[in-house]
TrEMBL record:
GO terms for molecular function: beta-glucuronidase activity; carbohydrate binding. Residues 84-193 form the Glycoside hydrolase family 2 immunoglobulin-like beta-sandwich domain. InterPro entries: Beta-gal/glucu_dom_sf, Galactose-bd-like_sf, GH, Glyco_hydro_2, Glyco_hydro_2_AS, Glyco_hydro_2_cat, Glyco_hydro_2_CS, Glyco_hydro_2_N. Keywords: Glycosidase, Hydrolase. This is Beta-glucuronidase. Residues 5-82 form the Glycosyl hydrolases family 2 sugar binding domain. The keyword Hydrolase applies. One of its GO terms (biological process) is glucuronoside catabolic process. It is an enzyme of class 3 (hydrolase). Residues 195-509 form the Glycoside hydrolase family 2 catalytic domain. PANTHER family: BETA-GLUCURONIDASE (PTHR10066:SF67). NCBIfam families: PRK10150.1 (NF007538). Belongs to the glycosyl hydrolase 2 family.
């Protein structure tokens, strides 16, 4: 049997599709092979490099702190569409007047030959399935009176039913009821909420929102990065138990099932691209040879092209998820070196152009504080990963507290934007206890987190806290890691460490409506 290549796609975390119509015959069997490579190079996001020795042995290195699994981890779906079909739907919501009526702006792309002669209608259904609005045409606005808002902790969802109708009235579904036949239809869930940054406040539906939760990983003992519904539900249950209202998809887009679950349960998401490890300052840590980040050897034009693609694909995939409130376009890139601003300015502009409704940010690394960083002003929020008391001031929480507070105040004074601590934490070996402030002990992890919280509560610009990490996770081999990264509040098999109880106390106490 002849084989043909029908599609290629670079990037492991966002969906792609291929039209195989011309390669198959109805009624006959065929073989479809999906093959993946996990090789990382300077033209991939995340980047990596592959060395080959004289004997032809190839070795992969990369600058990010999670294991580079191989294989197909998410669903592969074979489906068919009518020749003329709904290809894309975009929904943007707002409020009218006194805020009890919602405006739902929608835009539909219908693809296929002769698509433009097919009438399109949309209907809005509430959570019970009752129709609450309707419109005609490929774009327009539907009003929902007495709207139920999507809120943190209350993921109320509406459905936009998009129908492409037969252009000649046709027959079939719908025709019997006297209307024209429905040629294709697609149902898009959405929530009605707004997101806005005003001064140092992060507002959801016009009310200040304070993020509590974690940077996470898709990582489990047996299934690695594979998606599993049972594991997902367990992880979300633990988030609920601990009082988390949000998480960051560190350091890549998560499975779509995760985003749907977050929508439905009112969990707020900072949605991150896989652009992690664009930083030569980590060369010592990860043992790669890079000396300079921006330049032909490392983060170059090819990297930038791949980076543009991951931003486009993330926003295209996740634009209709009400849970997503911030796009994080990179984690800890080098942001002080010459070249950083020229590299990031067009990427920040691209994200804003693709989605003018959500704040855009990137996550700043500890080496590039407010005195050195050259790009954070390009973004709407300040997102910081800090390890005072761990990588610096190790075991000295008093010194760490002073340094942390001084830095947060410097950011607040420099930019006056909301600050979200997107990572803070300490590696902790579950079961190791100490009477003293001993790094790696369960007590030290809890004490360190409490120290950060004291500081956060003193700094007005703080808009959120995401502990690193939800659970212990696998990393590449290295002398800094023992069986992976142990900064989890939970172990890799999801048992709580002492810190989990301390976090639960803080996050379930004194909740305001917007944090609930
Ligand atoms: C970071 C990275 C994260 C690491 C973490 C750590 O800043 O963003 O990927 O795992 O530090 O534990 O060192």
């Amino acid at each position: 049997m002849d084989s043909a290549l029908v599609a290629e796609h670079q990037g492991g975390y966002t969906p792609f599709e291929a039209d195989i119509t011309s390669h198959v015959t109805a009624g006959e069997t065929f073989r479809l092979t999906v093959a993946v490579s996990n090789e990382l190079t300077q033209s991939t996001i995340p980047p990596g490099s592959i060395a080959e020795d004289a004997a032809g042995r190839r070795t992969q290195t990369y600058m990010h702190d999670f294991y580079n699994y191989a294989g197909i981890h998410r669903s592969v779906v074979l489906y068919s569409t009518p020749a003329v079909h709904v290809e894309d739907v975009t929904v943007v919501t707002g409020f009218d007047g006194d805020g009890t009526t919602a405006t739902v702006d929608y835009a539909v792309v219908v693809a296929g030959e002769g698509a433009d002669i097919h009438p399109v209608r949309v209907r809005v259904l509430d959570a019970e399935g009752t129709q609450v609005g309707a419109a005609e045409g490929i774009s327009g606005t539907v009003a929902i009176p007495d709207v139920v808002r999507w809120q943190p902790g209350r993921g109320y969802l509406y459905r936009l039913v998009v129908e492409v109708l037969a252009h000649d009235g046709g027959s079939g579904a719908g025709a019997a009821a006297g209307g024209p036949a429905v040629h294709d239809s697609y149902t898009q869930t959405f929530g009605v909420r707004t997101v806005e940054v005003r001064g140092t406040d992060f507002l959801i539906n016009g009310e200040p929102f304070y993020f509590t939760g974690f940077g996470m990983h898709e990582d489990h003992g047996t299934i690695g990065k594979g998606h599993s519904g049972a594991h997902m539900v367990n992880d979300f249950s633990l988030l609920e138990w601990i009082g988390a209202n949000s998480f960051r998809t560190s350091h890549y887009p998560y499975a779509e099932e995760v985003m749907d679950y977050a929508d439905r349960h009112g969990i707020v998401v900072i949605d991150e691209t896989p652009a992690v490890g664009l930083n030569a300052d980590f060369a010592g840590f990860f043992g790669t040879g890079a000396k300079k980040t921006y330049g032909p050897e490392f983060v170059n034009g090819e990297t930038a092209a791949a980076h543009r693609q991951v931003i486009e694909e993330l926003i295209a995939r996740d634009k209709n998820h009400p849970s997503v409130v911030v796009w994080s376009i990179a984690n800890e890139p080098q942001s002080s070196e010459e070249g950083a601003r020229a590299y990031f300015e067009p990427l920040a502009a691209l994200a804003r152009e693709l989605d003018p409704t959500r704040p855009v940010g990137f996550v700043n690394v500890m080496f590039d504080g407010p005195d050195k960083d050259t790009i954070t002003d390009l973004f709407d929020v300040i997102m910081l990963n800090r390890y005072y008391g761990w990588y610096v001031n190790t075991g000295d929480l008093a010194a760490a507290e002073a340094a942390l507070e001084a830095e947060l105040r410097a950011w607040e004074a420099k930019l006056g934007k909301p600050i979200i601590m997107t990572e803070y934490g300490a590696d902790t070996l579950a079961g190791f206890h100490s009477l003293y402030e001993a790094p790696w002990s369960e007590e030290y992890q809890a004490d360190l987190l409490q120290m950060y919280h004291r500081v956060f509560d003193r700094v007005d610009a703080m808009a959120g806290e995401h502990v690193w990490n939800f659970a212990d996770f696998a990393t590449s081999n290295g002398i800094m890691r023992v069986d992976g990264n142990k900064k989890g509040a939970f172990t890799r098999d999801r048992r709580p460490k002492a810190a989990a109880f301390a976090l639960r106390r803080r996050w379930t106490q004194n909740k305001t409506a917007s944090q609930a």
